[in-house]
Amino acid sequence: KALEPFYTTKRNRNASGIGLSICYGIIGEHYGTIMLESEYMEGTTVIIKLPLEGSPVVQS
Hints:
The chain is an alpha+beta fold. 18% of the residues lie in helices and 23% in strands. It has one helix spanning 19-29, and strands at 33-39, 43-49. Strands 1-2 form a two-stranded antiparallel sheet.
């Protein structure tokens, strides 16, 4: 859900919620992956993997 356009948890701020959605699109265009790991009241870790230039792309 966090990767969907305009999703935000910051209701009282000027947050558009578009940032992760744009990142997801750019990463996908470069054959990469993005993964979110969240722990309640602890925070979120974002893991981005991009292939090295010239490396063969392996689809899983």
